[in-house]
Structures are given as structure tokens and as C-alpha cells.
UniProtKB/TrEMBL annotation:
Protein name: phosphoserine phosphatase
Entry GO MF terms: L-phosphoserine phosphatase activity; magnesium ion binding
Taxon lineage: Bacteria, Pseudomonadati, Bacteroidota, Sphingobacteriia, Sphingobacteriales
Keyword Chaperone annotated: no
Catalyzed reactions per annotation: O-phospho-D-serine + H2O = D-serine + phosphate; O-phospho-L-serine + H2O = L-serine + phosphate
Organism for this UniProt entry: Sphingobacterium gobiense
């Protein structure tokens, strides 16, 4: 039985509402532009929250646009730069599922098609409205016979398509939830990477803060092995806004607290600490998911470096207390999670790794004792693993082995690597 994926466009595939952006382009020199922008945004939000009909919203927005074909060209250029980050890095999914990935939107083909087709989405799988133009290329309306222009349009369209298989929907608005309500789709995933609407998230089968999350829970091909929105990044103390912004923008689940509360100990994956913040040894010993600590100051005397090293926790600190390190330290933490880099670490061998391309990266942290690398490479040899590149560095009691391999392998290999004697931590990265 085939699986079909019904994907919304505005605020889902892209970060923005396209008609709102079109208004900003077409009304740039209009004396009442701010007032009209607000009216258009109000129409958008009221429909997305199910407070007015979709047709009422669509008609109101199109009438306010004062747009033409030249404005659409500018819009497409902007939208191509505004593809949601998690969709942008998962082109391979669309390549592998080009027959069953559908864009279904109340937006317009004139701007949707050129944005999504570079992602292997086929023209015949793009369902959206179409504009009407006058002889001078001005938008004067839309095709009202298209079911997607009407209230419940996505439901009407799916009834017409009669897709034979299991259908999953992903979107941010009320019209997306209506598919679930109709019984036509198996599960509805509320997409919240760009905006979270409570009226939608409260009714969803699953809240997906990124497309990576959607692919992960459905065990589908994806660019990263573990969704960053599932990695809890705890920020403790008086931390500059730039540091918080960097980690949030990268997609981590960020929480800002005054103290490191014990209830977060078991789940925290990243810890960014303000100068003068102390973490006790018992908390560190119990933080089994913790991968990296960033410290905006000299970490000495505040975090037990020995325990961190024994648990494979990479420390980045600001020993010289330079002002720019409020941005530098969180970026180093993110680079370790994303790419395996340990450059400028306080307690680990310093590795600046090449970017991962069409491979899986296996990160093996172990005690620096003889024979570990022989065991690692025996596992690869016994399983006929094709190694693309391999890096090893040691520092004191720690060994850090990074191996890039081709993506075709038996997953039992991962279990074997974790069971090697003297293994401290093992992690896998996809790109």
C-alpha cells in the first residue's frame, strides 16, 4: 500500500505567507501600505484559525493586492530564499518520493510551481489556485471553479483525487486540519517551525517542529539522524540574546532558566552557562544525554572537567572572556552537534572536520587505550563497510574517532560499535 504525503505551502514548505509577501512587493509605494498589509495579514490569520471561510479570506486578500506579473517574478525570487530550513535540507526525500509527495495549497500555482519543482516535486503533483489576469498582466481575480478556492477545498480535492493508499498531511492551518477531520488522511502533523496556531496544534495527531521530526517519526529518509528539535538545549543564567538566537535559529529546543534545575538533568543534551554558574558533580554524573557544555567565562572551578571527559561531554569555554564569544561559543556547540567538530574544545582533541556530503558520519568517543581502533576497524571490515574517510585524535584519556561511510549498511553495525570495550559515547550523523 502506497504512502502519500500531502504538504502545505505557505508557512510550511516556505517560512512565510506568500500573499502577504506579494502585498509587500506590490504595495511598496502605496501611501496606505501599512494599513493594507495589516488587513491582508488579518484575513490570512482569521482563515488559518477557522474564524472566517477560506473563500472570504482569499477574495479579500486578492482584492487588496494591486499586483501584476512583474510583482510575481520578484515574489518567486524571494520565496526561493525562504524555503523552510528543514525542507531545504531534505531534498533527497522528495527525490525518492516524487510520485507520492504532493503540494496541496490554497495559494497560487504561479508562485508555488517555480519554488517547489527544484525539489523534485512533479508539476502534476502541485495542486493550487490560479490567478486571472487582464490584458496588461494585472491580477484581477482567481479561478473560482477550482475546489481549492472554496471553504474545505483540500477535502474536496482529495475526494476528487481518490488516492489509493495511506495519506499523511502536514501543514500549519485550519484547512490542513480539515483533512484529518474529514477522515481522508491517516494522520495530521501540525507543522510549527515557522508558526504555531493553538487552534491547530490542539487538534493534531502530532506536533512537528520541523520536517526532520516528521521524517523521523515516520522512519523516512532524512538528512539528519536525529531531529534537533528533540535535543534539549538548556541556557542558564544571564546569557546575551545573540547566544539564545543562534541556538534557537539552528532548530534546537531551547529553554532559558535562572538555575540548572534537577528535573532537566536526565534530558538535557546541550548546556550553555553564564559566567559564575556552577554545576555540581552529582548533576553532571546523572546527565547521560548531555553532549556538550558551553561556558561564557573560564569553566575552571565551576564545572568538573574530569567528569565531563569521562562521560564524553565536550566543553567549550571563554577563558579570556572576549565579548564576541557570546556568539562564538554557541556556534562551536552547534558545530559539534551538527558536524562533529571539537575545534577550540577545552577537554577534547581539536578536530575541524570537512562537511558531510552523501555519507553517514559515525562519532566514536572512547578511552584512550591500546586496541580500540583495531576493534572499530574490525567491525567495519567484517561488515564490508566502505569507508570514505576516517579521522582519529587523542587527548589525555580521550580518543575521538570519526568515520564517514557510504549510506548502505546493515544497522547492526551501529550496535556492534556501541558495544566495543572502552566506548564512552557513540553518535551518528546524516547529511
Amino acid at each position: 500500500m502506497k504512502n502519500y504525503y500531502i504538504i502545505d505551502f505557505d508557512s510550511t514548505f516556505t517560512q512565510v505567507e506568500a500573499l502577504d509577501e506579494l502585498a509587500r512587493i506590490s504595495l511598496e509605494n502605496h501611501p496606505d501600505r501599512d494599513k493594507i498589509y495589516q488587513q491582508i495579514e488579518d484575513y490570512t490569520n482569521l482563515a488559518m484559525e477557522g474564524k472566517i471561510s477560506f473563500r472570504e479570506s482569499l477574495t479579500g486578500r486578492v482584492q487588496l493586492l494591486s499586483a501584476n506579473k512583474s510583482h510575481l517574478d520578484k515574489l518567486v525570487t524571494q520565496l526561493k530564499k525562504k524555503v523552510s530550513r528543514s525542507f531545504g535540507r531534505n531534498k533527497e526525500f522528495f527525490k525518492k518520493h516524487k510520485d507520492t509527495a504532493l503540494i496541496v495549497s490554497g495559494g497560487f500555482k504561479e508562485f508555488i510551481t517555480p519554488v517547489v519543482t527544484p525539489y523534485y516535486i512533479q508539476n502534476e503533483n502541485i495542486y493550487a489556485n490560479t490567478f486571472k489576469f487582464d490584458k496588461d498582466g494585472n491580477i484581477i481575480g482567481y479561478d473560482e471553479s477550482n475546489p481549492l478556492s472554496d471553504e474545505g477545498g483540500k477535502v474536496k480535492l482529495l475526494n476528487e483525487l481518490k488516492l489509493d493508499g495511506r495519506i499523511f498531511g502536514i501543514g500549519d492551518g485550519y484547512s490542513d486540519f480539515q483533512l484529518k477531520e474529514s477522515g481522508l488522511i491517516e494522520k495530521f502533523f501540525a507543522f510549527t517551525e515557522n508558526i504555531a496556531r493553538k487552534s491547530v496544534t490542539d487538534r493534531a495527531d502530532h506536533i512537528t517542529p520541523s520536517f526532520d521530526e516528521f521524517l523521523y517519526v515516520n522512519d523516512l529518509p532524512r538528512a539528519i539522524s536525529y531531529p534537533k528539535n528533540r535535543i534539549l538545549c538548556l541556557i542558564v543564567g544571564n546569557i546575551p540574546d545573540i547566544a539564545v538566537h543562534i541556538l534557537k535559529t539552528d532548530g534546537f529546543s531551547v529553554r532559558v532558566k535562572d538555575t540548572f534545575e534537577d528535573k532537566y538533568t536526565k534530558d538535557v543534551g546541550m548546556l550553555l552557562l553564564a559566567e559564575g554558574t556552577r554545576v555540581d558533580d552529582e548533576q553532571l554524573s546523572q546527565a547521560d544525554k548531555l553532549k556538550t557544555i558551553g561556558y561564557l567565562g573560564d569553566v575552571k572551578g565551576y564545572v568538573n572537567k574530569k567528569i565531563c571527559t569521562e562521560k564524553g561531554i565536550v566543553i567549550f569555554d571563554d577563558k579570556k572572556q572576549k565579548k564576541h564569544n557570546a556568539g562564538f561559543i554557541p556556534r562551536r556547540m552547534a558545530d559539534f552537534i551538527n558536524n562533529g567538530d571539537t575545534y577550540m574544545s577545552r577537554n577534547f582533541p581539536n578536530l575541524m572536520l570537512p562537511r558531510l556530503i552523501q555519507a553517514h558520519r559515525l562519532l566514536h568517543i572512547h578511552k584512550n587505550v591500546p586496541g580500540v581502533m583495531a576493534q572499530i576497524n574490525n567491525v567495519y571490515a567484517e561488515n564490508d563497510i566502505n569507508i570514505i574517510s576516517q579521522f582519529l585524535m587523542t587527548k589525555g584519556e580521550i580518543g575521538y574517532a570519526v568515520t564517514d561511510i557510504h549510506t548502505a549498511y546493515d544497522r547492526t553495525v551501529l550496535k556492534q560499535l556501541k558495544q566495543i570495550d572502552n566506548t564512552i559515547k557513540f553518535r551518528i550523523l546524516y547529511k
